[in-house]
């Protein structure tokens, strides 16, 4: 059969909707003029069309072998296609109607945190992960996430044939991607209900530009959650569940946020801050500090954060603010205590560096106004920020610190200014230089070169405005740290801005002993279950077993329990806070503390060693496997502490020494005297570089 005869038979059948299988001659009878196909086929190129040829072959095959008229099949396919189209149209129309009248919807934009919560939850749903339409995302592990050691110990083999060093080259390759629902419609069940999820994306034009300041298109993603029924309640429950699950993972973490990039800060509110870290909570007991001081700070913050406090403050017309100044030499635990406090109270920590050259006073105000209701704001090394007083403020300033002297010179002539600044720089060269000093110098240098930059630097009044101006967000815990409290402007630390000053000192002998014990005590996992985490964490610290026979037993957790009348009385006699508020009874009394302590087996180490260096490593590893019994550890710790002159070494220095002898308490004790003598000699000589022998 040639193409002309085929068309003669097929076309009239389809057009006329008749079925005369195999009767090609009837086609022409049904109206197609004789010879028309013969004329059209070459014109349309049908004779050479491979598809037509294929169609012809199939037509013949089906017709001849199955005895079915292929036209029926074509008609059926056409019908199915049309039905499908019709169904799609009807479904869309009915779904739109149902959505409008019988379904509740909630939209979540990707610019909101809930989007991240929901996506994480969806990615963890087995049904979703098995969906046929997914988006794969690279999900690298964070620094603090648990890893399967066996996967990593595919170490590089040393020349002596031993597997000594870890190798992480395949780490990224092994990391599993995260699968989330792709763009489009999805459905799933949750809590016995059927939910529809639509993930959609649209490009929005941003005329003000992004990081480069050029107008650009930005992708905006939205998740639309729907469920049957006229109430959005089930969707709200789902979102709440996703949020809870998200924060369940973060409960043992402290989220650290810093100001976002300048371009993002323009958008304000939640765009002002960006999460930079997500670290495990630092247990309060790991910060070695006078117990009295710890209890005092904990009680103070606990009282301030209590839900009844805002009313109490409001009734008395006092601004709801609490500021703390942590001062002391470098490495004495100021930052550590700030993080431990954030962990105890389950708060996020917002760190601001006033040295950030991109930070303007307007930014600072905006940052403070976009803080959440409860959080810890950490202003680190406030003395190095080069806070300037404005000219007006200068005249009234009685500050005597280097920085403010520098800044109060603004009214003087340039010569005097230069001389003074040279003098101060000369004096500075005699003192210790820190990286922060360098940054400040660079900033000052930059300011001298560009008058426009001058506008950017933060003045003291700018900072004070942010801290307690009208725009400030009340309710936050503000912690300022400094190495030089005496250089701070009085205005900055006056009561109302700084309510509690905490002095940190170099390690006492007791603290040296405690640091030693903390470093070498067997690893424990402490789980606290109760309703009031802050107070229980206090209890965690306070009810920790005595570290050694040499330490005085810590007060019992009940020593900080509140009485009904709201008076908080610490039986250790340290703090008495009376809030005079009859109807409030806070802090709430301590409830049950459940502790489970698990001793972790040391990781097995199999080393095949040949040379001396590796043998020593092996000995150290063997020693590392030995967990000293508590009395023995206490004895060694006391001997160690006796070798450390009080007030000469910062806890950070001691920690550095001990870390180099990690898991080797006896070796630390054996080497401490040499180290102390060496470091003291170096300090005397003004050197900052430690020889290898004294490290
Ligand atoms: N009192 C302490 N108890 C336990 N560890 C401490 C203590 N002080 C310092 N450290 C350790 O020393 C290191 C530095 O401590 P941290 O940053 O808290 O000191 P800092 O006083 O804030 O120093 P800087 O003034 O230089 O910012 C940390 O690793 C911390 O664990």
Task: Give an overview of the whole structure.
It is found in: Mitochondrion inner membrane. Its main location: mitochondrion. It catalyses: ATP + H2O = ADP + phosphate + H(+). With 695 residues, the protein is an alpha/beta fold. Among the domains are: 3-78, no CATH class; 102-140 and 157-250, no CATH class; 388-456, no CATH class; 624-694, no CATH class. Helices cover 44% and strands 14% of the residues. The chain contains 28 helices and 17 strands. The strands form 5 sheets. It has a 7-stranded mixed sheet, covered by helices on one side. A 4-stranded antiparallel sheet has the order 1-8-7-6. Strands 2-5 form a two-stranded antiparallel sheet. Strand 3 and strand 4 form a beta hairpin. It starts with a helix and ends in an 11-residue tail after the last helix. The relative contact order is 0.08. Residues 12-32, 391-426, 449-455, 526-537 and 539-610 have low confidence and may be disordered. The protein binds adenosine-5'-triphosphate (ATP). Adenosine-5'-triphosphate binds at residues 286-289, 330-336, 481, 483, 504, 651-652, 655.
Keyphrases for this structure?
elongated, seven-stranded mixed sheet, alpha/beta, binds adenosine-5'-triphosphate, 14% strand, four-stranded antiparallel sheet, 17 strands, 695 residues, 44% helix
């Amino acid at each position: 059969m040639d193409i002309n005869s085929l068309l003669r038979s097929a076309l009239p059948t389809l057009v006329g909707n008749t079925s005369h299988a195999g009767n090609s001659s009837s086609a022409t009878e049904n109206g197609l003029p004789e010879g028309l196909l013969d004329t059209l086929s070459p014109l349309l190129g049908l004779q050479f069309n491979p598809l037509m040829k294929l169609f012809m072959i199939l037509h013949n095959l089906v017709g001849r072998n199955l005895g079915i008229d292929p036209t029926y099949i074509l008609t059926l396919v056409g019908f199915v296609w049309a039905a499908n189209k019709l169904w799609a149209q009807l479904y869309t129309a009915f779904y739109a109607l149902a959505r409008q009248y019988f379904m509740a919807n909630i939209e979540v934009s990707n610019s909101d945190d809930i989007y991240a919560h929901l996506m994480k939850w969806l990615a963890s749903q087995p049904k979703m992960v098995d969906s046929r339409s997914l988006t794969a995302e690279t999900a690298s592990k964070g620094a603090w996430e648990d890893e399967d050691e066996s996967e990593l110990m595919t170490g590089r083999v040393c020349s002596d044939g031993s597997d000594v060093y870890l190798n992480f080259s395949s780490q990224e390759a092994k990391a599993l991607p995260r699968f989330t629902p792709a763009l489009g419609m999805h459905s799933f069940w949750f809590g016995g209900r059927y939910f529809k999820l639509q993930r959609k994306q649209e490009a929005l034009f941003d005329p003000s530009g992004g990081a480069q300041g050029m107008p650009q298109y930005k992708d905006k993603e939205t998740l639309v959650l729907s469920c049957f029924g006229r109430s959005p309640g089930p969707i709200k429950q789902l979102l709440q569940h996703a949020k809870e699950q998200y924060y369940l993972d973060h409960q043992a973490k402290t989220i650290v946020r810093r100001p976002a990039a300048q371009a993002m800060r323009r958008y304000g509110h939640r765009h002002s801050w960006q999460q930079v870290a997500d670290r495990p909570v630092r247990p309060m007991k790991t910060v070695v500090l006078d117990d009295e001081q710890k209890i005092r700070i904990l009680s103070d913050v606990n009282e301030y954060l209590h839900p009844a406090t805002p009313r109490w403050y409001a009734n008395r017309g006092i601004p709801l603010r609490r500021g703390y100044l942590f001062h002391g030499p470098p490495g004495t635990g100021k930052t550590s205590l700030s993080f431990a406090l954030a962990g105890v109270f389950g708060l996020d920590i917002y760190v601001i560096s006033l040295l950030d050259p991109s930070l303007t006073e307007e930014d600072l105000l905006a940052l403070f106004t976009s803080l959440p209701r409860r959080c810890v704001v950490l202003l680190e090394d406030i003395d190095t920020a080069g806070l300037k007083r404005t000219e007006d403020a200068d005249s009234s300033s009685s500050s005597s610190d280097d920085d403010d002297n520098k800044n109060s010179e603004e009214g003087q002539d340039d010569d005097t200014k230069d001389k003074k600044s040279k003098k101060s720089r000369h004096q500075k060269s005699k003192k210790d230089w820190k990286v922060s000093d360098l940054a400040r110098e660079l900033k000052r240098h930059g300011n001298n070169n560009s008058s426009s930059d001058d506008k950017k630097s933060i003045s003291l009044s700018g900072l004070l405005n942010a801290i307690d101006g009208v725009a400030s967000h009340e309710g936050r815990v503000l912690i300022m740290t400094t190495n030089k409290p005496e250089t701070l402007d009085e205005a900055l630390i006056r009561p109302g801005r700084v309510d509690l000053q905490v002095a940190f000192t170099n390690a006492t002998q007791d603290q040296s002993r405690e640091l030693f014990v903390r470093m070498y005590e067997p690893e424990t996992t402490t789980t606290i279950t109760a309703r009031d985490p802050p107070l229980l964490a206090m209890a965690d610290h306070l009810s920790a077993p005595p570290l050694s026979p040499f330490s005085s037993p810590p007060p019992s957790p009940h020593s900080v329990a509140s009485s009904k009348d709201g008076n908080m009385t610490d039986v250790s006699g340290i703090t008495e806070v009376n809030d005079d508020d009859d109807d409030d009874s806070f802090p709430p009394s301590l409830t049950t503390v459940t502790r489970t302590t698990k001793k972790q087996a040391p990781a097995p180490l199999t080393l095949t060693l040949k040379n001396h260096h590796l043998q020593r490593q092996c000995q150290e590893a063997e020693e590392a496997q030995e967990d000293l019994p508590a009395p023995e550890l206490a004895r060694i710790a006391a001997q160690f502490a006796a070798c450390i002159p009080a007030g000469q070494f910062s806890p950070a220095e001691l920690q550095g020494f001990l870390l180099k002898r990690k898991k080797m308490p006896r070796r630390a004790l054996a080497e401490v005297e040499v180290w102390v003598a060496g470091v003291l000699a170096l300090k005397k000589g003004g050197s900052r570089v430690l020889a290898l022998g004294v490290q």
